[in-house]
Design goal:
By secondary structure, the chain is an alpha+beta fold. It contains 8 helices and 19 strands.
């Protein structure tokens, strides 16, 4: 197996964080050679969360993460100007349900306290007001929630294509269909061992979704991550054709079979097909090294989603037409942690030459994490406090 030419930086994973890092690093280091490797192809949905959109929100229960979203918001606006393209559609972020239950999204009560502390405006709503305004039915009378109007949805394909174009303009190189099987860091750089060839780099970023844990695990770095395959259902509306309804997340107490959490995207602003997307956020049956994703929705979870729609979303027509798909979610096992983002300095021989970004619902932090990873690859202190993200 031969070793290809040497690179200043090799980025493993052409997802949002990998592409954002490539662009940010290249524009600050124009004479450096940057290579992005990916096992699949550009805009694949085989290595992470699927779907045409992602939830954009500013609010977090945790103040330290909340501060980062406010910074990310500024960078999204700058990215949109650079790309000359609207990427975030601010249709609103609606949270409702049991206000005291803790989930991987946070908690409604604590998040409202955090929004008060951060002076972020929101509208507190009773469940009956939510049902009347947004068409839901039959939720528990003790539920409540809020609408944060600056939230909404992120255009996934628009973001990825914009970052790819911006990085390409700066002569970043790409190699798709290149699976990385191991890393060999040392004091002067990293040898990246692919299935078919080797690459040599001064610095390496690992941002390969579900594959990141195994790759850095070979360096005796154990990231406490679990990968789940969650069900998503796409359905047409039978009524209520109001444009640009908010994204919503229903906070509920877990049941015996699952975590009983559901979320939904109304027809997105750039779509012409008019489908709502209803997702299950069930952290059950994590994938193992021996049993990878099936890329098929769990029939039991599909049935649970359809039952939810039939009971609570009368404006949908789940019996008439629906499509089921699966969605990979790589999440920290510690409910108090959102992501892993750090240099591997001190964790293994040559770890100072390896940067890792892994886990969590991170798409909303794409431009921010790209800048942080670029800082770490340049041996700079990150421009923002990432104490809560380090491993």
């Amino acid at each position: 197996m031969h070793t290809s030419e040497e690179w200043d930086v090799v980025i493993i994973g052409a997802g949002p964080i990998g592409l954002s890092t490539a662009w940010n690093y290249a524009r600050e280091n124009k004479q450096h050679k940057v290579l992005v490797l990916d096992k699949y192809g550009l805009m694949t949905q085989l290595a992470g969360t699927s779907g045409e959109e992602r939830h954009w929100r500013l609010q977090y229960s945790e103040i330290d993460i909340f501060r980062l979203t406010l910074e990310a918001d500024k960078l999204w606006q700058a990215l949109e100007k650079n790309a000359d393209r609207k990427l975030i559609h601010r249709t609103g972020s609606l949270w409702f349900g049991d206000a005291d239950v803790w989930t991987n999204e946070g908690q409604i009560t604590q998040t409202m306290k955090s929004m008060d502390e951060m002076a972020l405006p929101y509208e507190r709503l009773s469940i009956r007001a939510i049902e009347q305004r947004f068409g839901f039915t039959h939720f528990d009378a003790n539920y409540e929630g809020f609408l944060q109007r600056d939230g909404g949805v992120i255009d996934v394909k628009g973001t990825l294509s914009a970052l790819y174009a911006l990085a390409s303009e700066l002569n970043v190189s790409f190699a798709f269909g290149q699976e990385v099987v191991a890393l060999e860091p040392d004091s002067t750089g990293v040898t990246v061992i692919g299935a078919e060839q080797r690459f040599r780099a001064r610095k390496v970023l690992v941002a390969s979704g579900p594959g990141s844990k195994k790759l850095v695990g070979q360096l005796d770095i154990d990231l406490a991550l679990s990968t789940y395959e969650m069900a998503c259902i796409s359905m047409l509306r039978s009524e209520r054709t109001t444009a640009n309804d908010p994204f919503w997340f229903a906070f509920q107490q877990p049941v015996a079979s699952d975590s009983n959490l559901f979320y939904g995207f109304p027809p997105n602003p750039w779509s012409v097909n008019g489908f709502d997307r209803l997702g299950t956020d069930f952290e059950v049956d994590p994938l193992s090294d021996t049993h990878g994703p099936s890329y098929r929705a769990n029939p039991l979870h599909v049935e649970r989603a359809l039952e939810f729609a039939q009971r609570h979303m009368p404006f949908l027509a789940p019996d008439r037409e629906h499509y089921a798909s699966s969605c990979l979610a790589v999440l920290p096992t510690d409910p108090q942690r959102q992501f892993y983002l750090d240099s591997a300095r001190g964790r293994c021989h040559g770890g100072e030459n390896v940067v890792v970004s892994a886990g969590g619902w991170a798409f909303k932090f794409t431009p921010l994490m790209g800048e942080i990873c670029a800082d770490l690859l340049s041996d700079k202190s990150p421009r923002w406090d990432i104490s809560a993200l380090r491993f």
